Amino acid sequence: MTKVTKQIKCGDLYVGGNNKITVQSMLNTKLSDIDNSIKQLELLELNGCDIIRASIDSEDDAKAINIVKNHTKMPLVADIQFDYKMALHAVKNGADAIRINPCYIGSEDNVAKVINVCKDNNIPIRVGVNSGSVKKEYLEKYNGVNKLSLVESALEQVRIVEKYNYENIVISIKASDVRLTYDANIELSKRTDYPIHLGITESGSEEDGIIKSSMGLGSLLLMGIGDTIRVSLTEDPVREVIMGRKILQYLGLRPYGIEVVSCPTCGRTKVDLINIVKDVKKAISPIKKDIKVAIMGCAVNGPGEAREADIGIASGNGEALLFKKGEIITKVKESEIIKVLLEEINKLN
Ligand code: SF4
Fold first, then answer.
1. pLDDT per residue over 289-312, tens digit each?
2. Would you say the pTM of this structure is higher than 0.90?
3. CB neighbours (10 Å) of residue 179?
4. From the CB of 295, is ligand 1 less than 6 Å away?
5. Does domain 259-347 correspond to CATH entry 3.30.413.10?
6. How far apart are alpha carbons 228 and 172 in whole angstroms?
């Protein structure tokens, strides 16, 4: 059952409550490198990114917030490491949210300054912890990094913000270990109503990162836990966004255009199905319709196996059957598969 969290507002976007789950990424440019930051930001937005985070390590980075924000509708989250002054500069320059670890900011006076400036501007604060930043006190109390030390560490940060009567909070607990992230977020969700940002940290590149994130985020999202997600990859951030979208789409949480289902091929397949699928996916990629297209290897099992698809083809020997919702409509030559499929997809509402 979906956990309904508190709703917060980040820029023009609502996070938590019953709102759609958002996809985030982080710029890997220095924000003060304005041209490249804008280029990356626009590309991320085009690919479906909802919220963008940027590290703010200098006054120049903070000043750039104002400029780059004119090029995007995405709320911009300023990621602050240790220097509280960067948080103040970021808010002054229009940051839509701040990500801090209050325990790293130093004196309580400095923490108070950051919280108060966020409060004055009504912008959310994301707090949280990853497996590498659990406080020593909790490591000792709970015997190392585990779900309890992670959750306690994160909730301590929440209490610090709440002490200043501010509840505009998002929490994240991340680990590179999938099971630990899963266990800790279940525990966190039991103990708080604040929106939760999900991610597997340092998950790696390519299939490693994608599989870890899909398992970790997917299992939690299926339990109704998670209001916003980031797939962290050692890759171009655009890939993070595409993978995040796919996770939400394949869990049925947010539609993102055409979903292609295709059979794994077997001894009955008589066409080069692997390349047909590649070509069809390329041909349909510009089409923005929330439908399911099936590409199956045989006419006997294909349509039945892909009954839930809106439209599809089942290949035979040099030809293919076109089917809708599992019912065969017509027969097409192998060379015309893509053309006919595109025509039929265009006819669908
Ligand atoms: S749909 Fe047909 S070709 Fe594809 S795996 Fe199933 S039986 Fe084999």
1. 999 999 999 988 888 888 889 999
2. yes
3. 12
4. no
5. yes
6. 10
